[in-house]
Design brief:
By secondary structure, the protein is an all-alpha fold. It has helices spanning 2-9, 13-28, 52-78, 82-103, 109-137, 141-159, 171-192. The chain has one domain.
Length: 197
């Protein structure tokens, strides 16, 4: 149980590491635009003429993915029912894909695209799967409600007609959907804290 506790709490570090490094990359990418760029554009040096930008961005993704993976592993080990374990495995796949987005930046397009789609697609599926786990097996109605709201929010974010409001890049939906994932992550850890004592 002590190992599981350490693994789950390590998830707290994922957003704490990711967002400062990503925003540091944005600050150093002088021409970055929330309207026309993807966050993944920060993963390569050529548009910015600054090697610090991809270093900050890719390091943030890789480290955040590692700590998210540790959380997902701990969560999976803590679940007794098949539904919870299935959701945990989905989380682990999602976390691994986040790491590989940083390992394979945009200048390795096939792999980068694969892991990017994987990350943003699996996230709401994992949330919805675990909504059932939280409600049926954990009897945690509040966490189930938070999970389904955030999962639907991610789907809505990616379904919005961004181009109609002048947003041609995907940086905004990428950031907003990752923010939903971070809120969900902290909500789960907060809910599990009593069971981890």
């Amino acid at each position: 149980m002590r190992l599981v506790k350490v693994l789950i709490y390590s998830g707290l570090l994922s957003p704490i590491i990711a967002y400062p490094l990503i925003f540091s990359a944005i600050i150093n990418a002088k021409t970055f635009s929330w309207r026309s760029n993807a966050l993944s554009d920060l993963g390569i040096a050529s548009p910015w003429n600054n090697p610090l930008v991809p270093f900050l961005f890719n390091t943030g993704l890789i480290l955040a993915g590692i700590f998210f993976s540790l959380f997902a592993l701990g969560f999976t080990l803590s679940r007794e029912k098949l539904l919870g374990k299935a959701g945990g495995v989905l989380l682990l796949l999602d976390a691994i894909s986040s790491t590989f987005i940083g390992i394979f930046p945009e200048d390795i397009p096939q792999w980068h695209f694969f892991f990017s789609v994987m990350f943003f697609s699996i996230l709401p599926i994992a949330m919805m799967t675990l909504t059932a786990e939280f409600y049926v097996n954990m009897r945690d109605v509040n966490l189930a409600l938070v999970s389904i709201i955030l999962a639907i929010s991610v789907i809505i974010i990616w379904s919005m007609p961004w181009r109609n409001i002048g947003v041609t890049g995907v940086a905004l939906p990428e950031f907003l959907s990752s923010l939903c994932g971070s809120i969900w992550l902290y909500s789960v850890i907060w809910s599990l804290r009593r069971k981890l004592k």
